[in-house]
Amino acid sequence: MSPFRLYLGRTGGPSAEGQTLAFCGKCATFAIVHFPHIFLWLAIFSLTWMPLAAQKKGILYRPFHSHLQKGTIGDFLTDINTRSGITVEYASGIFPLDKEVTAGSEIATLGALLQTILAGQHVKAIEKNDKIILIPSPGPLPEDALLPQYSVYGIVGEEGSREPMADAVVWEPATRKGTVCNIHGYYSLSLPEGRHRLEITHTGYNPVIIDIDLHWDQRTDAAMTPREDIPEVIVSGRKGPKRNGGETIVPGQYDPFTNFLGENDAIRSLYILPGVTNVTDASSGLLVRGGEQDENLFLLDGNPIFNPTHMLGALSIVDKTSLKAIQFYKSDFPSRFGGGLSSVIDVYTKDGNMQKWGGETNVNFLAASTTIEGPLKKDRTAVMASFRHSMPNFVLNLFEKDFFSNFYDAHFKVTHLLNRNNKLTMNVYSGEDNLNLQTSDQNLNNRQRWGNRMASIGWTHVLGSQSFVTTSVNVSHYYNLAGFVYTIYNDSTGLPVTNHSFNTYSSISHFNLRTQFEVNVTNDVTLKYGGEAAFAKIKPFESKVDSTIAIDPSTFQRSVPLPYHEFDLYAESEIRAGARFLLRPGIHFSSFHFRDFAFNSFQPRFYMTYRLSTSHQLFAAYNRMTQYLHLVTNPSLGINSDLWVPSTPSLQPEESQTVDLGYSYKKSGEYSLGVDVYWKEMKNVTNYAEGKSFFINTDSLWEQNIETGKGRSYGFELMGEKTGQKLNIHLSYALSWNWRQFDQVNHGREFPFKYDRRHVINLATTYKVDKSKDISALWMFATGDVYSLPERIYPDYDNAQQILHPGDLLQNYRFIYHFSGVNQYRTPPYSRFDLSVSYHPPRKRRFGFNWTAGVYNVFGSPSQYSYGLAGTLHSRSIIIVSKEKLFNITPYISMTVDY
Predict the structure, then answer these.
(1) 829: exposed, middle or buried (Cβ count in 10 Å: 0-12, 13-18, 19+)
(2) Residue 803 — φ and ψ, nearest 5°?
(3) 605-617: per-residue pLDDT in tens?
(4) Domain shared by 112 and 12, yes or no
(5) Are 543 and 810 in contact (CB under 8 A)?
(6) Is residue 601 within a helix (H) or strand (E), and if so which, with residue range?
């Protein structure tokens, strides 16, 4: 039979770049082209796992009640050989057969009886050929060596609401065994047969104590009640080795430092972590360890969101009142994630309260929002609905002139419990921005309209005492309409003559099917594996030139859609080697297809941590990541002119590999300190080709406007926290270097990346005046960005861009950009100081109030310079001449009511 061949090349077939693996056999049927069968494969594997696991329960698990309550070891062994049907073989003299022992009446299995009568003896037991063979051992029999091991498992939720308690710790003090609940509140813990006391704890909740008598696999759910004395700033503690290098942020954790003009944005809590910056408030995303905003994978309940911001990055789409938790990764990437080089932001929202109706409403200068949740049927079906809308612009314009913003978020979620083992969730989100920035002194105008739509259906299923599965179908859509007006001036008079506008429209629709299995093999080994099939269509570069800014997407020239599909498989194992050492090796495999281009990627992931003592830990991580989507931005068009494009043979996927080493110190309830050093190498990062314009609606030419190169970043990060009854302090510092290199830029020499910020410092403090009043302050400092400006921009007179159609309406507006250097300028350092006061009087009956007043940017530091185009009538040259800053000193006040 001919061999089965699997090609691991960059083009999906045999090539000089690829490698060929050959397999011979009767049933060599697996191939990359059969990736739609990955879900069938995963299901078969999981359905066969449970019977295989059951087969592991051997002779020691067999029920057996001895007629003897007291006797010699020899008497008990004779009773077993006579009545159990099992043969116990042993050599005389390896233990005293005449020693008297007592067996309790509650002993129900053969293993438990042998453990009792042989306690303290220097023996060990071997199961072979349906026999138990006792042989000498240099040490005494361990306390639970022969006891049957059973699993206690279940769901930990919040009392009343039944909201799953992610990261709740389940601990059994006598055996010193424990585990942590996953994001769905599921836990599984193997314990020896007998009586046990479980302790369940979670930050901000009262501990739960449960006594169990374990003689078989047993499901035990638990409900936790919130503490009434929760401190204003919560710092989560960890027991044992760190399970990953990510950060988990829960509502309320950094509230005093995330207030933007009265709107409390949980995503802004990421800005005070080292290595995460957003110095310019009006940019379109987070900047993590020197990466661009497109290198961050943002997931909302498992759905990719391509622009999760309002007001050009000043505010996120996440409403704090609907938030359950944020998991953020920048140094360690679990194998289930793929598609982002710099970070993963995994956002989970509430399922809805299963017991009673309640909610929260917030009103401030920037927006008004409300969230309501409650049961449609108690303990069976719950809904959560959240809506937020910006306030009328005249309120904001009292402090921010010429800035007009209109946005909304609508989020609806239904959770239905089919039974104890099955839960269905339906999730729908819609949000949109309309923004206009006008600088009256130069008569410039930028207008932006963008939005996200998302819908998903999820199913979570408890397979058994050791396994759990989640499956979801997700749909996400993003569109972006951008317009920029520039003015032509008369050479002689200097007066404006005419206006023209550039307008672009792009969109991306994304569909995926995802499933993940979680298997607790033992208390020390957890296996996670799964797969995903994704299909997407991009509509790029739809553009027009007009006298005014376009507002209707249907008026744009249509371009050829760019469809692609991607298949992923992943697996990882979490291994705890003793009480100090934890390993998590993993692999992520992806296969990408766009037209005739195929790319397969193996991405190894590795994380390890070693606990030096209860307070000191060391950890290390290695990750390879692949990203198939590229975000390209016109360098001189104005704000947020972003276009997503897929990888092609000439525009290869972006890849990175990162090494991270760290140390952490934590003194319970008082001090914590973390230090990281990292090195990241990137290839096939994109840059806007020098002298090119993306206003070409030709299907074959857009790739020529983008070039790829290499990048690297490295640095040192520090984060320290001090908590107390009155004063809480948070300090983070990052020292970093970020570089790029392109063959056609800067003569091929390396140059600093545009987000090269050498020093970034964040200092946040909260002082608790009394039980109802707090004062908070936040100081942020960063050295300036580097940037390039073209000295001249002029029309493409000699057809250097090869416009093939003379009648093309856009040909008079294709420009050549002339630069004398790359990133030859650096902006001034950025420094911002925010101050706020919070008043939260004691709750009266059903209602609770919280008042917050403050000043954003107390010292009026500039936050962003937006550059515009202006030129002359006769020379038709256009020169960068103007700049404007946003968000100066802005006071605010907000009121929150929860009920």
Answers:
(1) middle
(2) -75, 115
(3) 999 999 998 889 9
(4) no
(5) yes
(6) strand 597-611
Total count of domains within the chain: 4
Q: What pLDDT, on a 0 to 100 scale, did the predictor assign at position 696?
A: 46
- Containing H/E element for 81? helix 73-83
Q: What is the domain-level CATH number for residue 106?
A: 3.55.50.30
Cross-strand bridge partners of residue 572: 528, 586
> Same domain for 126 and 156?
no
Q: 494 Cβ partners below 8 Å, 6+ apart?
A: none
Same domain as 63, residue 50: no
What does pLDDT average to over the chain?
78
Q: What's the Cα-to-Cα distance from 511 to each of 28, 29, 327, rounded to whole Å?
A: 30, 27, 23
- Among the listed residues 254, 390, 262, 372, the one whose alpha carbon sits nearest the alpha carbon of residue 321: 372
CB within 8 A of 457, min separation 6: which ones?
A: 424, 425, 426, 427, 472, 473
Whether the CA torsion 50, 52, 55, 57 is positive or negative: it is negative
241 token code pair:
């080795």
Q: CB count, 10 Å around CB of 162?
A: 23
Three-state SS for 524-565 is: CEEEEEEEEEEEEEEEEEEEEEECCCCCCHHHCCCCCCEEEE
Structure token pair of residue 715: 């640095």
> Among residues of the chain, what percentage have pLDDT more than 90?
24
Query: Does residue 238 sit within a domain?
Result: no
588 and 572 fall within a common domain: yes
Q: Are 456 and 301 in contact (CB under 8 A)?
A: yes
**CA–CA gap between residue 448 and residue 789 (Å, rounded):** 23
Structure-model confidence comparison of residues 558 and 458, the more confident one? 458
Burial 334-373 (b: 16+ CB within 10 A, else e): bbbbbbbbbbbbbbbbbbbbbeeeebbebbbbbbebbbbb
Clarify whether residues 51 and 63 are in a common domain.
no
CA neighbours closer than 13 Å in the CB half-sphere of residue 191: 30
The residues, ordered by sequence, that sit 6+ positions from 514 with a Cβ below 8 Å of its Cβ are 302, 471, 472, 474, 530, 531, 532
Separation of alpha carbons 503 and 482, rounded Å: 6
User: By C-alpha distance, which of 880, 798, 855 is closest to 365?
Assistant: 855
Beta bridge partners of 373: 358, 384
Residue 19, strand partner residues: 8
Please check whether residue 449 is in contact with residue 278, taking contact to mean a CB–CB distance below 8 angstroms: no
pLDDT above 90 (res 717): yes
CA pseudo-torsion sign 797, 800, 803, 804: positive
Is 51 in the same domain as 65? no
Residues 445 and 549 placed together within one structural domain of the fold = yes
- Determine, yes or no, domain membership for 144: no
Whether 164 and 35 share a structural domain: no
Distance (Å, whole) CA 84 – CA 130: 12
How many Å apart are CA 221 and CA 154, to the nearest integer?
A: 5
Question: Under DSSP, is residue 172 helix (H, G, I), strand (E, B) or coil?
Answer: strand
Looking at the domain assignment, is residue 748 inside a domain?
yes
Closest CA to 253 of 237, 277, 274: 237
d(CA 67, CA 59): 19
> What does the angle CA 17 – CA 22 – CA 23 come to, to the nearest 5 degrees?
155
Question: CA-CA distance, 686 to 691, in Å (whole number)?
Answer: 15
Q: Does residue 159 lie in a domain region? A: yes
> Which residue segment(s) compose the domain that 21 sits in?
4-55
Contacts of 430 (CB under 8 A, 6+ apart): 409, 410, 451, 452, 453, 454
Total number of residues shown for the chain: 899
- pLDDT tens for each residue of 747-763: 788 888 877 888 999 99
CATH value at residue 775: 2.40.170.20
